[in-house]
Amino acid sequence: MTTAVVVEGLHKTYGTVRAVNGVSFTVEHGEIFALLGRNGAGKTTTMEILEGFRARDGGRAEVLGLDPGDPATKRRLSERVGLVLQDIAVEPYLTVRETIARNAGYYAAPRDIDEVIGLVDLVGHEKKKVRVLSGGQKRRLDLALGIIGDPDLLFLDEPTTGFDPNARRGAWKLVRTLRDAGMTILLTTHYMEEAQVLADQVAVIAAGRIVAAGTPDTLGGRDIARTRIRFEPPPECAVTDLPVAAVPGDDGLVTVESAEPTEMLHRLTEWALGRGVALARLTVDRPSLEDVYLYLTSDDQRAPERTLERSAP
Fold first, then answer.
1. Which helix (H) or strand (E) holds 289?
2. Over 51-82, what HEC string results?
């Protein structure tokens, strides 16, 4: 079996609100899959259905070959799945080691406790009580509890909330290490850089529907979208004096978009060199994953599978 998670036509309604409206996606074994969406888009409900915390109204949900909504398989599934939720209730007066050791006792073949403490960068904090840990340390403890059972599939819900940049990158390294060791990971995050760095596949949910899916580099047509050339116009140069159409921004830069960036750059640099002026703060890039995400979720009524607009230069 190569598919770890199967979601087909998933539905969940609360009164008159369709929180999840026909969601479908698959997660392959050994990959990191990121489900992205604004608060209220249906992301949390979808994850809770897959985690077995919420019953679905319709459609198919399968996790490691089992139905997460079937009470008969709940025990078997819990032994193979790890959870790192946004809020995990732990005893504040237990130490870090005691907390991890207690959870290790729930599994037949848990990971080594010292190994896990090292993996989540809590070495030296083993004897600290949970109540005195910082927010980032508590989040690393949450991650330790999620992996102590050596799961086949790990759900990560906003895993690096409260982390400073260094700690966040350390967590990313750990997640990639777990994936490289064969673990399947399904995560949610509001950090687009995190999704870009970690995810093999991404799906964006809006108004209860998947509006785009693909790799971080191709999501929403990002790989073939128009290139953006941005620079600071030379002093006393109006936007209309430039040899190409440009749009001024509030940051003092102008933006030129083109499907043929090489030709456009040639025209701009030739113009600048001919006048002996510089194109200060010059950058050339395609829309970032965050740009695409904001575009896809800016209006929750957008049609599914929307892509970035493209046109000739």
1. helix 289-297
2. HCCCCCCEEEEEECCECCCCHHHHHHHHCCEE
H/E element, 193: helix 192-198
Cα–Cα dist 190/3, whole Å = 25
Tokens of 198: 């970690």
Pairing of strands 184-188, 201-206: unpaired
pLDDT string in tens for the chain (313-residue length): 589 999 999 999 999 999 999 999 999 999 999 999 999 999 999 999 999 999 999 999 999 999 999 999 998 999 999 999 877 778 889 999 999 999 999 998 999 999 999 999 999 999 999 999 988 888 899 999 999 999 999 999 988 887 888 889 988 999 999 999 999 999 999 999 999 999 999 999 999 999 999 999 999 888 888 899 999 999 989 999 999 999 999 999 999 999 889 999 999 999 999 999 999 999 998 888 998 999 899 864 444 455 555 443 3
Taken in order of first residue, the domains within the chain and their CATH numbers are 3-80+151-220 (3.40.50.300), 226-285 (3.30.70)
What is the spatial distance between Cα 193 and Cα 181, in angstroms, rounded to a whole number?
A: 23
Strands 81-84, 153-157: pairing is: parallel
Query: CA torsion 43→44→46→48, rounded to 10°?
Result: 160
- Name the CA dihedral angle for 150, 182, 197, 53, rounded to a multiple of 10 degrees: -50
Q: Give the global pTM.
A: 0.85
Reference 198, options 182, 213, 212, 186; nearest CA is 186
Q: Is-contact 190 163, C-beta < 8 A? A: no
Q: Which residues contact 86 (CB under 8 A, 6 or more apart)?
A: 157, 158, 161
Rounded CA separation 219/201 (Å): 9
